[in-house]
Amino acid sequence: MSRPTPATRRSAKSEYIETDTGNKISRRSIIEGKQNIMLGGKSVVMAGAMLRGDLVRKPEKMADGEKEGPVTAIHVGRASIISTNCTIRPPHRISRGRMVFYPMRIGDNVFIGPGTYVSSAVISSNVHIGTNCVLSAFSVIRDNCKILPNTVVPSHMTIPPGSVVGGRPARITGEVGEGWGQGGGGEGEEYVEGGDLRALVRSIR
Amino acid sequence: MTSKPSPAPTTREKRTPAEQPPVAKPPCDIHASAIIAEKAQITGTHPVEIAEDVVVHPYAKIRAENGSVSIGKGSMIWERAVVGCAEGSYACSVEIGMDVSIETGAIIEGAAIGDGTIVDVNAVVERGAVVGKWCRVAALERVKAGEKLEDFTVVFGDGRRRTDETIRNHEDVREARRDAQVKTVAVMRGLVADAKGKWL
User: Fold this and answer.
1) CA nearest to A51, candidates A37, A67, A66, A31
2) Is B99 within a domain?
């Protein structure tokens, strides 16, 4: 009837909230424990993406008077894009007899495709991750890698720099070759996988 | 519309729905030591039974529209996982054993999941399927409707199967897995806020 629907009400606002450092965070993203998430600037978190910042290593009992330092669960670099319906959850394992969550680090110009699950320890810079991938706990993705869609990277796997990875479980199927990530990034140019994503970030609004 | 619409709600009434309990709140039997996150969803009309030390993460869904759901001691339902089925008219009850991990985005419509089993990220156990004890359904895999998986089966690599001999022949490995699960539940107590009161 005449009651305004939520959709029309939302459309009055913009999809993304932009922070001082140029990060764009969708209003429809799901962020738990936002105080434990660091975005480097000009990074994008799209609608439906879920970041589990609440799963952090709780500092062990400190001496009296010492204040709790800030803990980071998820660290994302500059111009990285976390697409729709991704799940980013820090990995956990037993250390010294107790279960501990480890902080997770994502570098610069990393593109994470829609529906992908990330529980890696480290993702370096200029990495392109396809749609519906699963990056299991403590996997390490080095620089300039390309992960094909629907890949399942097993836990603790380290992917060397410049690899193309695909399959279930993941195998290294090739190298990205010369010129990976070259070109693009300029004003009015198309973005390039593994290249500078700033132009793409700028076009998202 | 022929019937006269009810009088327009006042502004105060308009605000309340968010605070009200969900429309279809199933009869829940939740143990005092279980953790149900604030943003987890439990829907349907059939009984839902949650045993001790179960952790249900935010945005996980328990759906009892077409049958009862029971979750055994020490099991963990991660974010965006769906246990039970809402669509269709067939009856579908789900029984999850002890120390089971239902990972992110997994869909469980199957009749039973045995103790110690791991259903990995975005895997699907279709309706009526029975998964044995200490199985592992790897990420993105699918257990077909009505299928029965023997104990210690691993489903991996686009539908391939094998038996996990390590876990079958070594009681201490199973013990270590159980221990890890207990420790994970323990750490969750400090990290995931409990809101089971909403469902009781």
Assistant:
1) A31
2) yes
CATH number at residue B132: 2.160.10.10
Contact A87 B79 (CB under 8 A): yes
Q: How far is B150 from chain A (nearest CA, A)?
A: 22
pLDDT at B1: 43
Contacts of B195 in chain A (CB under 8 A): none
Q: Which of residues 125-184 of A touch B (CB under 8 A)?
A: 132, 134, 136, 150, 152, 168-169
Beta-sheet pairing, B124-125 with B142-143: parallel
Q: Is residue B115 part of a domain?
A: yes
Residue A47 or residue B6, greater confidence:
A47
Contact assessment for residue B49 and residue B70, using Cβ atoms and an 8 Å cutoff: yes
pLDDT of residue A161: 93
Does A30 sit within 8 Å of B187, measured CB to CB?
Answer: no
Q: Rounded to 5 degrees, what are φ and ψ at B72?
A: -80, 170
State the pLDDT at residue B13.
Answer: 45
Kind plus residue range of the DSSP H or E element containing B46: none
Phi, psi of A24 (to 5 degrees): -115, 120
A169 and B180 within 8 Å at the Cβ level: the answer is no
